[in-house]
Each structure stands twice: as structure tokens, then as C-alpha cells.
Design a protein that fits this description.
Largest interface: A-B, 79 and 82 residues
Distance between the termini of chain B: 40 Å
Shape of chain B: globular
Protein name (chain B): Alkanesulfonate monooxygenase SsuD/methylene tetrahydromethanopterin reductase-like flavin-dependent oxidoreductase (Luciferase family)
Organism (chain B): Microbacterium trichothecenolyticum
Largest sheet of chain A: 8 strands, parallel, barrel
Radius of gyration of chain A: 23 Å
Radius of gyration of chain B: 21 Å
Mean pLDDT of chain B: 95
Strand content of chain A: 15-25%
Low-confidence stretches of chain A: 446-452
Strand order of the largest sheet of chain B: 1-2-3-4-9-10-11-13
Family (chain B): Belongs to the NtaA/SnaA/DszA monooxygenase family.
Number of helices of chain B: 11
Number of helices of chain A: 16
Distance between the termini of chain A: 33 Å
Helix content of chain A: 25-40%
Keywords (chain B): Flavoprotein, FMN, Monooxygenase, Oxidoreductase
CATH superfamily of chain B: Luciferase-like domain
Structural class of chain A: alpha/beta
Domain Luciferase-like (chain B): 28-296
Helix content of chain B: 25-40%
CATH architecture of the largest domain in chain A: Alpha-Beta Barrel
Number of strands of chain A: 17
Shape of chain A: globular
Oligomer: heterodimer
Number of strands of chain B: 13
CATH topology of the largest domain in chain A: TIM Barrel
Mean pLDDT of chain A: 92
CATH class of the largest domain in chain A: Alpha Beta
């Protein structure tokens, strides 16, 4: 039996983004259930660990007008995952749910309900928002200051766990003979009085199959890393190259140990794309073509407008990089998407230098800085790259997305998965029934006992 | 008045059944109440019977014998799963029946409610509805911690009355927002027009800019317009205030007539409420809730079963009329209700695993025999209920 590290695989369907090629002849609906069923069943056929669904809480807008170029519109996360539970048996179901615009009682009950209804396959990707544009869709509004979002998120996760833990495993007797349904008349009782939530009462959902559904987080700042290392079962990371991935993973494992956790119990998965070809040249040619499709004129313009925070429509994409400065004080010019750059001025400075050095137009710069689609090559080469990345400690696995929905993942499952299985790096059958078992995570009770 | 339309028949699912001791019956599966298999079995039985819809009860607090707060009873079912997720989990396992989860609108975000029901409509391919529920319970308020509640007070306490009135006004705003969000994408907003490089026609995706007394919501929704356009909205109502909420917001009102005279007065009260709020469009479908214990053919009578269950613990107390008897007895009651102007009945099985199969095997054949079952196949819930289909979004500009 192989002792190779098992690659964790998750399948991702993007909802509102510029990566999915809607112009592709095979592009299907982004909203019909048949799309989600197809991707989930394909992932299960490929023995993936989980299906991952992002969440959207506002449509993107440019200068106050809904942006019309990219894929937009998505279903609600949890009902889709519950429906996927009906058409799969083993696949984990991880949904992104915002800790800013949801209350712990409702979150805990929905995720625990999904855990019951899927036989223990539920997970929660915890995200936060501080964006007043998104907040305008909610009763609460854009009330949360940037610095407070982790405070609320940490307390949300802690409170949700208190609720999940509020029923004993054996609270339900359901003994028809004696007439005892509950062993304890106060099952589900909780009381949480913290800086964010002042709540008490009883939780409606009995202990779910996993006890505590799986928690997934992202976060690269020191604060975010601590949050993830102390509480997450899995981390959705942005580092998909070996050196940076290894550095991040080492750092998280060290932090997890400092929090008294077994580093093995924090799995790290960067997102990745893939392009397969019959030869490397063929795959690279396809990848170039995909990138060209993704980087349409309007995508390029909006990408730069997001950093400059101003209207750049007057600048020729085939001309030089704009010589004006970004405008950080103006209201957000591009709304409804996360701003991933730390410092606008620094980013623009770096890009200008790069463009000058290489003699790039704005379009050339966009191609230069766009994220490559990830794993590119023949199925053998892709299997080799991915396996090496995981075996050498770049991460514990990857979250795979495809630029064509819903059929894009088929090629990976048909052509790469068998090679990974041959190498002994990917299961050929599911070992257990729950997501925790798939991921090799302990049941919460076991984790608690180990910590004592 | 002639009654040419056969009544709509639905069923309301609540745990092991509506009797607090239902879980103790031999057929009951109390250990399975929190599994998907249990709910799929029930909904499949209802679908096999040809019923129009199932509703699924829910609440943000545990079941309780008390109105405003919890209890510590151990001899009744306590615990429930989120009804929207039960409905979504069941949806791919059935193909014709409508699914109406109960959703509390008092402590939830209208944006989330809107996209959740829209998504149920997608995963069920046009069979979604929602029964909106106003929460006036003290324990539910304490679970969320966002609004003050007068506490465990007398129901005629002025502070409680004010709280209730406000909660109903707010619920009407929530439904308004939910409905506007469903309309915020026109049906043909997604154009995928490669020639103009546009995935969306931005002119067909609309902000809703709702600003009310209690909250504001900008929109548009993140979820495109659901297959039915407007999934079916229902509400359970027992008094003038709730009738008005239903008249303002719902397509279907579930009511609880106790007898023939009461059933007539409710119809009048609902129609009065419609006039009072100047309801536009279709009149409300008035549906009577009946809590049923059906005779077992050749076995125990429904009345004996009810008496036996009552003796096990707490006797059944119900807002809805309790009908214990043969399929023919229940069919007679339905006949009378149809004659009184009711669009249908919703049956609450006293014991889910006994009465639901009897509804399928005895009651529905009896109703069919009397010509009281509609047989037209409809693929959407709106269609089954005779509500207009293909409604344009309120934001759509008429084609010139």
C-alpha cells in the first residue's frame, strides 16, 4: 500500500466572475440545477473530497451601473448544496456564508441542518464583508468597520460552535415505550454574552452527524492567518506555487501548533485552474487562447479601474499605462467585488516599472499580471505537477475550477484522476461517509480529548 | 355560487405529526426525524397521492406547549431542521409536487429569504412556494438578540399588542422586498450576446431601492428571476391583522374554520381585508386547514386513535378543526368548504406515517370518486394552484 500523501480535491463553480468563458460553445447555464448536478456528480466520480460553492451578495457595478460583461447571477448557496446532497453520496458540500450579514443562530441551524440532510457532509467557508455597497442589500446595512470584521467573524464561529455543541450526542432517546423523547428537558440550551452577540435560549437542531461541520477559511494577513490556524479545518489559500505555498503552509502549521492544535488537522488548498492538451505546446496554445477570452477589452479596463479607482475608458488598451495616480479617496468606482490589492499606489508603481522594463502596453500588462490558469500540459504532466506540489508540501490539495461550466471538469476527471490514482496519490474509493472522514480530520470529540 | 373548480389539496408536514404523541405510534420513526430519508418518504407519499403541495413547518425555536416561550417537556418531539433545506433536499427526489417551507420573516434578512426561495424554485424546476411566518415569541427574539421583546407577558398586554402589530407591518415589508427582488432581473436579462460582448442586458436588471419604516434594501438580487417568476407566497392567518398581511402580500391564505358558520365568516373577513388593503390582481386563494385522523379501514377508528394518543400525555390542542373519521367524513367536510367558497384544504396529518398514507390510499380515491380532484397535469406550483403563469417582472417595459 502506498504511503504517498493523499491529494485533497475540491470542485468549484464560480458564479460572478471574469474567469468563466460564457462565450465558449460548451458553456451552459450558471443557474440551472442541472449544471450543479453535473459538476458535483463528475467530482464524485473523480473521488473528490468536496464541492465548493462561493456566495454572492451583490451584483458588480461600474460607476453605479451593473457591469454587464462577466458571468453574473448565482443561486443561494445552501439550497443548492442541499439539492446536491440528493444526487451524490460521498461528496462533501462546502458553502461560503458571510459572517457579517448572517446571525449565528440562523447560520448554525442551516449548516447543522445540511449536515443532517447530507449524512455528515457539510462544511462552511467563513467569509466577512465590510463593504457598504453589499451592506445596502441588508437590514443591517454597511455597519461593520474594516477592523471589526474579524472580531465579529471570530465570535460568530465561536458562537456557532457553542450552538452545535449544545445538544449531547445521545440527547434524543425517542423511546416509544417509556414516552421519553428527550433525555434532557433542556437539551440545546445555550447562553452567549460577548461583545458581538448577546443571545441565549435553546438551539433547534440536535447534534449533527459530524458534530461540528467542517470550517473552511481564507486569510493571508497575520490576523487572518491566526484566525484560520486557530479555528479552521481547512484553509482556502491563494498560494499555488511550490515555494510560496510551502512557506504559507509551514507558517500555518507553526501557528496551529502554537494554538495547541495538531498541524495535520489544518488542511491547505489553493485554488487552481487547469488546461489539458495532447502535448505541452498544444496545452499552452489552448491556455493562451483561454486567457485572451478572459481578458476581453472590458475585463482589462475594469481590472485596472478597480486599482486606479477611476474611469479609464479614455485610455487606449494598446497604448501606454495611464500616467495619472489612483484616487483612493473617491467612492468605489468598481463595486461588488473584493479589492485584493493592499495598496493602490504601490500596485500602480510596480506595474508601471514592469511595463517600462518590458515595453508593455496596457493590454500587455494585463496579460503579464493575470493569473495563469494553473496546471497546463498533457494529463501526465498535469498529474505530475499537481502530485509534486502536494508531495513536496506546497499544500494538501487544490480547489479546482474550470473556465467552462458545467463540462470543464469532465476532462480532468477522465484523464488526470486515473493517473493520480495509479500513483497512489488519490483514493479509488471513498473511505468513509462524512466530510471529516474524507479529509482525514478527527471527530471533534477526539480532538478535544487529544488537547486535554 | 357554483364551484366548478376542484379544490386544491395540500398537506402540512410537522415532525411525526400534529399530535404531540404522534411519535409514539407503531408506524412512527422518531429516530429518523432528522434524516433526509424520512422527509423524502413523506413527500413521495404525498406526491403519489397526487396532492398539489406539501408545506413544511418551521420555527426559530423548539416546539413548546406555551405560546411565547419554551418548555422543558421530555415526552414530546423537540428539535427541527431548517425547512427550506429540507425542501431543497427533497426537491430532486420528487417531480410534480409543490414545496412550501415555512420561513420566519421577523428575524431574517429579506435578501437571504428571497434568494433562498428563488433557488428552491430552481432546484425544484418551478415548484417552490413559501409560507411566511411572523415571530412574536420571546425565545426566538432572544435567540437572535437584535430586537427587544416584552417578554413572557399576558397576550393582551399593550406592549405585546404593539410588538405584534409592528411585527406584522414589518412582515408585509419583507414580503414586498422579497417579491421585488424576484422581479429585479427580468426574464430575459441574461443575453450572452457575443456581438456586443454583454452577458447581461444591464437595462433589464433593476435596483429595487426599497425604503420602509423598518429597513431598506437596494437590490438587485444576486439570483436571476426564478422559473415561476413569483414563487407562491402563503400565510397562515387567524385574525384580522394576519388577514390583512395575507391580503397585502400572499397568494394563498391558510385559515382555520371551526365549523360551517365560522367558515363563511372567515371568507367574508378575508374579502373585507382584501378591500381594506385595496388588493390588486388575483383574489387570495382561501384554504382551510383541517387536522385529520383517518379511520383505518377494518381497524381502529380515527376517533379512537385520537383518544388513545390524548391519553398518552398532553391532549391535542389545535387552532385548526380536528376531523377524526372515515375518508368519506373528511370528504364531506371538504365538500362543504368548497361550497362555502374555499379554494382548497390543507390537511394536517395527526400522525404523519399513518394519516398521510390514508390520505393517499383512502381519501384521495374518495375525492376522485366525487369529482373533487383535479387531474390536469401542471409542472409549476402556480399552475397547479390556478395562479397566472408567465407573469412579467414588474420592472419589465412593455414590448412596443
Amino acid at each position: 500500500m502506498s504511503t504517498r500523501k493523499q491529494i485533497i480535491l475540491a470542485a468549484y463553480v464560480g458564479g460572478v466572475n471574469e474567469h468563466t468563458a460564457w462565450e465558449h460553445p460548451d458553456a451552459g447555464s450558471q443557474i440551472d440545477f442541472s449544471t450543479f448536478r453535473h459538476v458535483a456528480q463528475t467530482a464524485e466520480r473523480g473521488r473528490f473530497d468536496y464541492f465548493f460553492l462561493a456566495e454572492g451578495l451583490a451584483l458588480r457595478a461600474r460607476d453605479g451601473r451593473i457591469f454587464d460583461h462577466d458571468i453574473a447571477g448565482r443561486p443561494d448557496t445552501l439550497p443548492v448544496l442541499a439539492a446536491i446532497a440528493a444526487v451524490t453520496e460521498h461528496l462533501g458540500l462546502v458553502g461560503t456564508l458571510n459572517a457579517t450579514f448572517n446571525e449565528p443562530y440562523e447560520l448554525a441551524r442551516q449548516i447543522a441542518s445540511l449536515d443532517h440532510l447530507s449524512g455528515g457532509r457539510a462544511g462552511w467557508n467563513v467569509v466577512t464583508s465590510f463593504d457598504a455597497y453589499t451592506g445596502a442589500n441588508f437590514r443591517r446595512g454597511g455597519f461593520l468597520a474594516h477592523a471589526d470584521r474579524y472580531v465579529r467573524a471570530e465570535e460568530t464561529v465561536a458562537t456557532v460552535r457553542e450552538l452545535w455543541d449544545s445538544w449531547a450526542d445521545d440527547a434524543i432517546a425517542a423511546d416509544k415505550e417509556s414516552g421519553v423523547f428527550l433525555r434532557d428537558g433542556r437539551a440545546g440550551e445555550f447562553s452567549h454574552h460577548g461583545s458581538q452577540f448577546d443571545i441565549e435560549g435553546r438551539f433547534t437542531v440536535p447534534r449533527s452527524p459530524q458534530g461540528r461541520p467542517v470550517i473552511v477559511q481564507a486569510g493571508v494577513s497575520p490576523q487572518g492567518r491566526d484566525f484560520a490556524a486557530s479555528t479552521a479545518d481547512a484553509i482556502f489559500s491563494p498560494y499555488s506555487k511550490l515555494a510560496e505555498g510551502k512557506a504559507f503552509r509551514d507558517d500555518i502549521r507553526e501557528r496551529a501548533a502554537r494554538f495547541g492544535r495538531d498541524p495535520e488537522h489544518v488542511k491547505i488548498l489553493p485554488s487552481a485552474g487547469f488546461v489539458l492538451g495532447d502535448s505541452r505546446a498544444d496545452a499552452e496554445e489552448k491556455a493562451r487562447h483561454i486567457l485572451e477570452q478572459q481578458l476581453s477589452d472590458r475585463t482589462i479596463q475594469v481590472t485596472f479601474e478597480q486599482v486606479w479607482n477611476r474611469d479609464l475608458s479614455a485610455y487606449d488598451l494598446d497604448g501606454p499605462v495611464p500616467d495619472i495616480d489612483p484616487d483612493p479617496e473617491a467612492p468605489a468606482f468598481i463595486q461588488g467585488r473584493a479589492f485584493i490589492f493592499q495598496d493602490r499606489f504601490q500596485t500602480v508603481r510596480t506595474w508601471r516599472e514592469l511595463a517600462e522594463q518590458k515595453g508593455l502596453t496596457l493590454r500587455g500588462l494585463a496579460h503579464e499580471v493575470a493569473r495563469a490558469p494553473g496546471y497546463i500540459g498533457t494529463p501526465e504532466q498535469v498529474a505530475d505537477q499537481l502530485d509534486t506540489f502536494v508531495q513536496e508540501g506546497g499544500a494538501d490539495g487544490v480547489v479546482l475550477g474550470s473556465h467552462v461550466v458545467p463540462s470543464g471538469l469532465d476532462e480532468f476527471v477522465d484523464r488526470v484522476v486515473p493517473l493520480l490514482q495509479e500513483r497512489g496519490s488519490l483514493r479509488t474509493e471513498y473511505e468513509g461517509t462524512t466530510l471529516r472522514e474524507n479529509l482525514g480530520l478527527p471527530l471533534p470529540e477526539a480532538a478535544l480529548a487529544a488537547a486535554l | 355560487m357554483t364551484t366548478s373548480r376542484p379544490p386544491h389539496i395540500g398537506v402540512a408536514l410537522e415532525g411525526a405529526g400534529w399530535h404531540p404523541a404522534a411519535w409514539r405510534e407503531p408506524s412512527s420513526r422518531p429516530a429518523d426525524l432528522f434524516t433526509a430519508a424520512y422527509w423524502i418518504d413523506l413527500v413521495r407519499t404525498a406526491e403519489r397521492a397526487g396532492l398539489d403541495y406539501v408545506s413544511i413547518e418551521d420555527s426559530l425555536a423548539l416546539q413548546s406547549e406555551r405560546f411565547l416561550t419554551g418548555d422543558e417537556r421530555t415526552d414530546e418531539v423537540r428539535g427541527r431542521l431548517d425547512a427550506v433545506l429540507i425542501a431543497s433536499r427533497v426537491a430532486p427526489a420528487v417531480s410534480r409536487i409543490g414545496l412550501l417551507p415555512v420561513v420566519t420573516v421577523t428575524h431574517t434578512e429579506p435578501f437571504h429569504v428571497s434568494k433562498a426561495i428563488a433557488t428552491l424554485d430552481y432546484v425544484s424546476e418551478g415548484r417552490a412556494g413559501v409560507q411566511v411566518k411572523v415571530s412574536v415569541r420571546a425565545d426566538e427574539a432572544a435567540h437572535v438578540g437584535r430586537r427587544p421583546h416584552p417578554g413572557d407577558v399576558a397576550l393582551d398586554d399593550p406592549a405585546f399588542r404593539a410588538f405584534v402589530d409592528e411585527a406584522f407591518d414589518e412582515a408585509a415589508d419583507v414580503v414586498e422586498v422579497v417579491r421585488r427582488l424576484w422581479d429585479s432581473w427580468e426574464d430575459d436579462a441574461e443575453i450572452r450576446d457575443a456581438a456586443t460582448d454583454r452577458f447581461l442586458d444591464a437595462d433589464k436588471v433593476h435596483r429595487i431601492d426599497f425604503e420602509g419604516r423598518f429597513f431598506s434594501v437596494r437590490g438587485p438580487s444576486i439570483t436571476p428571476r426564478p422559473p415561476q417568476g413569483q414563487p407562491v407566497v402563503a400565510a397562515l392567518a387567524h385574525a384580522e391583522g394576519p388577514y390583512r398581511l395575507a391580503a397585502r402580500s400572499a397568494d394563498v391564505v391558510f385559515v382555520t374554520p371551526a365549523d360551517a358558520a365560522h367558515s363563511r365568516s372567515i371568507v367574508d373577513a378575508v374579502r373585507d381585508a382584501e378591500r381594506a388593503v385595496e388588493r390588486q390582481g388575483e383574489p387570495l386563494l382561501i384554504v382551510a386547514d383541517l387536522l385529520v385522523f383517518l379511520d383505518e379501514p377494518g381497524g381502529e377508528s380515527g376517533a379512537d386513535r385520537l383518544a388513545r394518543l390524548d391519553a398518552l400525555g398532553r391532549p391535542l390542542v389545535s387552532d385548526a378543526r380536528i376531523v377524526a373519521g372515515s375518508a368519506s367524513t373528511v370528504a364531506d367536510v371538504i365538500d362543504d368548504l368548497v361550497a362555502a367558497g374555499y379554494a382548497g384544504v390543507r390537511l394536517r396529518p395527526g400522525v404523519a406515517t399513518d394519516d398521510l398514507p390514508r390520505i393517499a390510499d383512502d381519501l384521495v380515491p374518495e375525492l376522485r370518486h366525487r369529482g373533487l380532484v383535479q387531474s390536469a397535469p401542471h409542472t409549476t406550483l402556480r399552475g397547479r394552484l390556478g395562479l397566472p403563469e408567465g407573469l412579467p417582472s414588474r420592472y419589465a417595459t412593455p414590448v412596443a
